[in-house]
Amino acid sequence: MSNPSNRVSEFFNSESETNDLLWQYVKSLSPETVTQLSKPTSAEVFQVMERNITGLLGNLPSEHFGVTVTTNRENLGRLLASAMISGYFLRNAEQRMNFEMALQGSETDNSEID
């Protein structure tokens, strides 16, 4: 059985054409675009991300406990990757929801015209 940490390293170090095209695309984006894509547009997405990361780290309220999290570089990288993937998923879900709501609104407008 292969070591899970090796699989993660292989994933991030893969030289596939798809990864290269995506990386080239990301590098071509302006800093303003990257900033815009990196920020949640709604408070709901931010709250879900906050709850997700809190759940990963533990739920002890910091106002009652002196919480310190200690980990190594590899596990911190995995936590970051998990948070990023969750963020991208939530952002895509939010965009899809907004798109579907806009589409429903245009269908309603079209039916009123007919």
Summarize it.
With 114 residues, this protein is mainly α. It has helices at residues 4-13, 17-28, 31-38, 43-57, 73-113.
Structure description:
It holds the Pfam family DUF760. InterPro entries: DUF760. This is DUF760 domain-containing protein. It comes from Nostoc punctiforme NIES-2108. This protein is mainly alpha-helical and 114 residues long. It has two domains: 1-38, no CATH class; 40-114, no CATH class. Helices cover 75% and strands 0% of the residues. The protein has five helices and no strands. The chain has helices at residues 4-13, 17-28, 31-38, 43-57, 73-113. The longest helix has 41 residues, at 73-113. It is flat, with a radius of gyration of 20 Å. The chain starts with a helix and ends with a helix. Mean pLDDT is 75; it is low at 4-9.
SSE topology sketch:
Elements: H1 4-13, H2 17-28, H3 31-38, H4 43-57, H5 73-113
Helix pairs in contact: 4-5
Keywords:
5 helices; DUF760 domain-containing protein; mainly alpha; 114 residues; DUF760; 2 domains
